[in-house]
Amino acid sequence: MFRTWWNLRKQKVLGINARNHLYVMQYNPRSAYPLVDDKLKTKQLALMANIAVPELFGVMRTPHDLVALDKVLEGRRDFVIKPAHGSGGEGVLVIDGTRRDLYVKPDGRALSLDEIRYHCTNILSGIYSLAGHTDQAMIEYRAKVDSVLGPVSYRGVPDVRILVFKGVPVLAMIRLPTRDSDGKANLHQGAVGVGVSIGSGLTTHGVWHNQVVSEHPDFGTHLHEINIPHWENMLLLGARCFELTGLGYMGVDIVLDAELGPLILEINARPGLAIQIANQQGLHGRLNYLENTGIPDNAEERVALSRKLFF
Amino acid sequence: MARSSSRGKLPLVTLVAILCALSLLIVWFKVDYLHLPLKPQENSELWTIEARIEFSGRRGPASIGFQLPNEVSLFTRVDESFVSRSFGLTLNSIPEGREARWTLRRSEGDHALFYRLKVYPQEGALEQTFLPGDSPEFPEIPPYPEPLASAIADLLNEAREESADIFSFAAQLLSRLANRNDENVKVIRDARPSNEWPQLVTEILAGARIPSRVIQGVSLQDDFIDRPLLSWVEVYNGQRWRGFDPNSGQMGYPPKFYPWTRGAHKVLTASGVRNLQVSYSVSRVSVSQELLAQQLEERLSTGLMNFTLYSLPIPTQEVYKVLLLVPLGALVVAFMRVVVGLPTFGTFTPILIALAFRETQLGWGLLLFLVIVIIGWGVRSLLENLRLLLVPRLACMLLVVIGLMLALSLLSQRLGFVQGLSIALFPMVILTMTIERMAIVWEELGAGETFKQTIGTLLVAISGYYVMNHQLMVHLLFNFPELLLVILAICLALGSYTGYRVSELLRFKDFNRMKP
């Protein structure tokens, strides 16, 4: 136990307490939280700043709106329904096809319109929302897997998590859906996290259920040295979110669409720490360094600084 | 890390230190001055001294004055009471201290009046060699009549030859006076009635210009029953007073001596009565320290003491006995979350479960909790098919939970398990929400996570139970609620703890073992 503790100290691994006390509470103004906790607001904000986001098909605000659910879904073969105030991927329903009048999930289970409506009801009643308040259900565009990442994604779309501190990307990983994660890209639901070197845009190690892995658990494909497409662009998107939200310490989730390129999915004001395992790299040292360094105002310069520092 | 955090941490450290110091200061005050015990259920000796005054009336006005004992160092007067019958009672100040005066316009027949005093001897009070007292003047040599004068002079000379200091001189003199075969002693003893003997001893000591006086009191022993006050002689050596047995000359006070008054004067004075008698009895009552403290407070009622919980009505006190433990439970939760990193359903759910365990006993509590939650969960998955809206569904679950509790109580009544009845003490809303959270965690994150959180919740609840059920904790928080400030200080410190959690040590166990 003590050796682990000493090793973590030496590697400058950031713990949850230190993250909350020294970074989240210090650099994230409370007033900025609603912007990111409500994904609808984040989306509007991003659109205003000309940042690409998945298209919003419709919003269910009240149970009454659900009557018109079929109108919103009419003619759509694939879409995602998620709670506006959800966290950690809870309550996200992905539909990637239709069979007669049924909607099919990535794992092949088919849902009727009524079942989808029930799911929306649960979202509206606030089951998945952070504070248990009533919520809204967002229906939006489902991103298509990029050909490079297809072979390492199990029935879902991977997304890239970039940890941004004071507008500078600090660590990044790509999260690959697995059979365990039901096509979702959240680590604690069973997705694989793979570290991405900020400097090169190449993947490093994988982490699955907090264990280091080198192959995709479902396909056996190698996880390292994958060149992430549009890397510079993604880092820039992440860096620009600093001006967008005012959050000093955040995780930006970006999905890579085969046709539309990188799209901002959501922003997290309390990003998890598994990204350190995926990169086998402690955060504390990097954050500490940036705390005591002059940071450029311009997002492009910040990305350049980051690619120079964190190779 | 050091630079950015140390700046912010300094005021916190100061605040924590101030809170702890303040709290411990009040605790120290209460322990030292009010003798509230730090440990629970220590029985302590409380002595009741009862003076019984008997007399017969003379069919006329009667007035009885009774000198009450003054404050004595190391003894705490807990309570005093009077049984006055039809007599009027006034408390007066007299030169010797305090006096109780009973009066009646017309008294007839036999009467008995009582004065009861409860004293609490502090540590060492009963083994004192020296009693404190003011320093007296050196006495003038009294003019003794002959043949007393020459007998005394002889004795003083003999004693002086065999002594080194004042105390040994007094001891020598008194042991000589105890020898009734000595001619001189016979002369001296015949000079006064025997009950004035201690007074005469002081007068003989004055012949050597040694300050001395009579001290009267009782011996705090269970066999001191229906006896008069003991009269002892105190001798002053220029620095302090020391007791001597006037009859044997032995140095020291009577065993477990409680002084009533100093001087040879009568404690009891009366007019208009006959057959006046007073006798004293001593008995020991063993009371719990808390009760004792309570009685002390009633008497002291200083500003601070008015703020202790004993001033509240008993049922309210019982409520606070439990309520004051909740912050302790919260501290356990905070510790488990921040330092250990145990996941739980809901933040304070474990404390409420632990409070319920307090009533049901741990084993039964765990069993009942699990039974209700598992059955409730089963019912919930049936309700799931009906696709109910959240709040009505929760209402249904609440109903189901209460129904289950009722059924369990009836069943255990039938089977004769009284413990089953205590299920009613479980917070049903908490049970309902626990079931709901469990079901959602199960659906969202799977069985493993549900299992982990259930274990975490129960672990925190069990540790909370042990901490909140600890006799010492219950005692400390109830008697020293200012210890809440210490809990507050610890919570503040935990709030800015930035070290690793134990769970993180496990989570990051293999961190970077691949790289050298």
**Largest beta sheet of chain B, briefly?**
5 strands, antiparallel
* Largest interface: chains, residues each: A-B, 39 and 33 residues
The number of helical segments of chain A is 10
Helix/sheet category of chain B: alpha+beta
**Main sheet strand line-up of chain B:** 7-10-9-8-11
Q: State the shape of chain A.
A: globular
Q: What summary fits the major beta sheet of chain A?
A: 7 strands, antiparallel
Strand % of chain A is 15-25%
Give the overall silhouette of chain B.
elongated
Gist?
The complex is a heterodimer of chains A (311) and B (516). Chain A is α+β, with helices and mostly antiparallel strands and 311 residues long.
What does this structure look like?
The complex is a heterodimer of chains A (311) and B (516). Chain A is of the alpha+beta class. Chain A is 31% helix and 23% strand. Chain A has helices spanning 2-11, 16-27, 33-37, 39-48, 69-73, 113-125, 231-245, 274-279, 284-291, 299-309; strands spanning 56-60, 79-83, 93-95, 97-99, 102-104, 110-111, 137-140, 159-165, 168-176, 192-196, 203-208, 211-213, 249-257, 261-268. In chain A, the strands form three sheets. In chain A, strands 12-11-10-9-8-13-14 form a seven-stranded antiparallel sheet. In chain A, strands 1-7-2-3 form a four-stranded antiparallel sheet. In chain A, a hairpin with a 2-residue loop joins strand 8 (159-165) and strand 9 (168-176). Chain A is globular, with a radius of gyration of 19 Å. Chain A starts with a helix and ends with a helix. Chain B starts with a helix and ends in a 9-residue tail after the last helix. In chain B, 47% of the residues lie in helices and 21% in strands. In chain B, helix 9 crosses helix 12 and helix 10 crosses helix 11 (390-415). In chain B, strands 7-10-9-8-11 form a five-stranded antiparallel sheet. Chain B is of the alpha+beta class and 516 residues long. The interface between A and B is large, with 39 and 33 residues.
